[in-house]
Design brief:
The protein has nine helices and 14 strands. By secondary structure, it is of the alpha/beta class. It has two domains: about 110 residues, NAD(P)-binding Rossmann-like Domain (Rossmann fold, 3-Layer(aba) Sandwich), CATH 3.40.50.720; about 150 residues, 3-Layer(aba) Sandwich (Rossmann fold). α3 packs parallel to α4, α5 crosses α9 and α6 packs parallel to α7. It is globular, with a radius of gyration of 18 Å.
């Protein structure tokens, strides 16, 4: 079992023939991901990277039985691409695009929820189940197969956590980069719940950042659910001043509970093992699992 993507996932790439789509699709194919084709309107009937190109997601799904899509479409058109994928029956939609207008996402998010699709992102590095499928832009070699799940709002810290887990002699079941935009499809709590229910995940790393209430919501849910698996938490932006946006569009301290200090306190109160810096993630996880790092 795995979460969201695995060796059987049939993946299409929206924005397939563009520079970003081409580069990352090639990386995904080389990793072993089952990329079955791509979509670029107006280029249907051609081939690219040895895979068929379709004019629409509906055509791609009909021809390939794709169930997963990754989106490399410019921000102005990305919400439409997300909704098109859901309309065509795609069940896992991973939106890499950064900066999709908030008003567009306010329409797209409920639209895809009504159709039973799961959206990861936007503004995310994607999802990887090591050794099976990489549907995203992360460096695959960093991720070693194992039984620790990762949920992160930060792309770079996803890779750092995976490296720390490997150095601790552990590995990753599935890593989910949920994205850093103000409106994203899957919250920290939703992603943690997927891993909590995964029989091949023994523990979870939860990486958050200043701004919003995703981490607090997840921490309280973990505690209410009975702390079934050890969770190690880290919050980025510990030195950020209030009112200043840091990196991600959603990373801005708007209230007392939005600070890194407050989020770390809430995590500790709910039984989560808190790492003070990214360099401690592997060590703290090893202690939580009672293994020698």
């Amino acid at each position: 079992m795995s979460v969201l993507v695995n060796k059987d996932s049939k993946v299409i790439v929206q924005g397939f023939t563009g520079s970003e789509g081409s580069f990352h699709a090639q990386q995904m194919i080389e990793y072993g991901t089952k990329v079955v084709g791509g979509v670029t309107p107006g280029k249907g009937g051609s081939t690219h990277l040895g895979k068929p190109v379709f004019n629409s997601v509906a055509e791609a799904v009909k021809a390939t039985e794709a169930d997963t899509s990754i989106i490399f479409v410019p921000p102005a058109f990305a919400a439409d691409a997300i909704m098109e994928a859901a309309d065509a029956g795609i069940k896992v939609i991973i939106a890499i695009t950064e900066g999709i207008p908030v008003k567009d996402m306010m329409v797209a998010k409920p639209y895809i929820q009504e159709r039973g699709a799961t959206l990861i992102g936007p503004n995310c590095p994607g999802v990887i189940t090591p050794g099976e499928a990489k549907v995203g832009i992360m460096p695959g070699f960093v991720f070693k197969k194992g039984r620790v799940g990762i949920v992160s709002k930060s792309g770079t810290l996803t890779y750092e956590a995976a490296d720390q887990i490997a150095k601790a002699g552990l590995g990753v079941s599935t890593a989910i980069g949920i994205g850093g935009d103000p409106i994203i499809g899957t919250s920290t709590k939703d992603a943690v719940q997927l891993l909590m229910e995964d029989s091949e995940t023994d523990a979870i790393v939860m990486i958050g950042e200043i701004g919003g209430n995703y981490e607090a919501e997840a921490a309280r849910w973990i505690n209410a659910d009975g702390n079934k698996k050890p969770v190690v938490g880290f919050i980025a932006g510990q030195t950020a001043p209030p009112g200043r946006r840091m990196g991600h569009a959603g990373a801005i301290i708007g209230g007392a509970d939005d600070t890194a200090e407050a989020k770390m306190r809430i995590m500790k109160e709910n039984g989560i093992h808190v790492a003070e810096s990214p360099a401690e993630i592997g060590e703290v996880m090893a202690k939580a699992l009672n293994v020698n790092a």
